[in-house]
Write a structure and sequence with these properties.
6-stranded parallel beta sheet, globular, alpha/beta
Length: 452
């Protein structure tokens, strides 16, 4: 597949926006550096942007020894003053209100900009703190573990609820492949899982366009397609943690993340596979248990979603009765009771508040039913790019990817609940909502669990 990116030295040149889809687009003013030994050039990269001299550097106790300590020395030698925000945790860092408060309280009137040294949680905390304080920020990545480096959304945790907060993108992103290739293998797998989830995001976005005339951006579709293929073409290199394999992985993650920036939301890169991952995380936190790594969860959930799509395609929708769909229509009050029962009171009320328009009148549900039935052949053709679940399981086996979900500590009941109810987490349209609205969701979910 022809590359959509190029380089000037180690500086990534992003594809130009050439799209008239009607969605308001933003083009990033961002310097992205990918290569080996780049950590020593950080001072030069910062000077090119002229962001100031006073820095709050955000990292955690694990990354401090791996990279942040060296970054601080390099910055100070380049004439920068660094205030360190060290997020010390005995276990996994959760990007919650406590961690955010620690970052914000480190800022002072003389702070010019923030530097995050780390991967997902560090980047999101730095991003949102920079947004709240109105200051620019820079990211020194340490692992190709997620697509959020170039995003404008910060996924955070508040009272065990996963919330997506709008924010900004970094002025500079540095991806030193020497550091990335030494990251724990599970973090590379996490990044791979995050990219593979784009199969489902792309399919659900196209489905929403067919059924609900949802606006869609062909350029972002092409970019996520390229991002996925970039990773699929580098499976051997990812497994070996070679420089080129890691380069392919981070390029895919970055290009996928850029689509969020372009359209201002995560529709191009996240759908029910992400909602399932968030459901697992929220329920684990609610139970006082350690949640699995996000990207690993996304990759695992993607297999179940692929199998669900297969079964949905195999269903002859002309044989599904309108009466069956009508039985699936529930009142607003019944929907709210269901969400509270399956998410808990605090999280459930937040979901109801944020997705109040997700309730469907029967007339709207009937319209969707008729649109699905009339367009089932078109849907199959448009979504024929999806790999089979068995094909992806074989690739996971080659990579030693933790699948099925039980390898991530997800028990049968939690898996079942996520397949049935994770669709309620976001208002966006998905194949799980399609199946639910025509009354076949429980049957398809049962078949998924039986066949996998």
């Amino acid at each position: 597949m022809k590359s959509i990116i190029s380089y000037e030295g180690n500086k990534l040149i992003l594809p130009k926006i050439q799209c008239n889809c009607g969605i308001n687009h933003t083009y990033p003013d961002m310097d992205i550096y990918i290569g080996q030994g780049l950590i020593h050039n950080i001072g030069k990269y910062l000077q090119a942007r002229n962001l100031g001299k006073n820095i709050v550097l955000v990292t955690d106790n694990i990354i401090y020894d791996i990279a942040a300590k060296s970054v601080i020395t390099i910055l100070e030698q380049a004439g920068y003053h660094v205030d360190l925000c060290l997020l010390e945790r005995e276990n996994q860092l959760i990007p919650n209100e406590t961690a955010l408060g620690e970052v914000l309280i480190t800022l002072n009137n003389s702070t010019d900009f923030l530097v995050g040294v780390g991967s997902g949680s560090i980047t999101d905390l730095t991003r949102y703190a920079a947004h709240l304080s109105g200051k620019p920020f820079v990211v020194i990545g340490t692992a190709p573990s997620m697509d959020g480096y170039t995003s404008v959304v910060a996924p955070l945790t508040y009272g065990n609820l996963k919330v997506n907060k709008p924010a900004g993108y970094p002025q500079i992103l540095v991806c030193d492949l020497d550091i990335f290739s030494r990251a724990p293998y599970k973090m590379l797998l996490s990044g791979f899982g995050d990219v593979i989830g784009k199969y489902i995001a792309k399919a659900d976005w196209i489905l929403g366009n067919i059924v609900n005339d949802e606006p869609i951006c062909p350029m972002c579709i092409d970019m996520t397609t390229w991002a996925v293929q970039c990773c699929m073409d580098n499976i051997s290199g990812i497994k070996k943690r070679s420089i080129e394999g890691v380069r392919g992985l981070i390029e895919g993650l970055i290009i996928a993340g850029i689509t969020i920036l372009i359209v201002g939301h995560t529709r191009p890169v996240a759908s029910n596979e992400h909602s399932m991952a968030h459901y697992w995380e929220m329920m684990k936190l609610l139970a006082g248990e350690k949640p699995p790594r996000h990207g690993l969860s996304v990759g695992s959930a993607t297999i179940y979603a692929l199998k669900f799509f297969e079964l949905f395609f195999q269903t002859d929708l002309t044989k599904v009765s309108i009466e069956q769909a009508k039985k699936a229509n529930i009142s607003k009050e019944e929907r709210e009771e269901l969400i509270l029962a399956k998410y808990g009171s605090k999280i459930g009320r937040a979901i109801i508040r944020d997705n109040g328009d997700d309730y469907l009148t029967w007339s709207e549900q009937e319209r969707r039913f008729n649109k699905l039935v009339a367009n089932q052949d078109l849907i199959r053709r448009k979504l024929s790019f999806l790999p089979s679940a068995s094909e992806m399981i074989s690739i996971y086996a080659e990579l030693d990817y933790p699948w099925p979900a039980e390898k991530l500590g997800i028990d049968d009941q939690l898996l079942l609940n996520s397949l049935l109810y994770a669709k309620e987490y976001r208002s966006r349209y998905t194949v799980f909502k399609s199946a639910n609205e025509i009354g076949i969701l429980p049957d398809l979910v049962g078949q998924v669990l039986q066949q996998l």
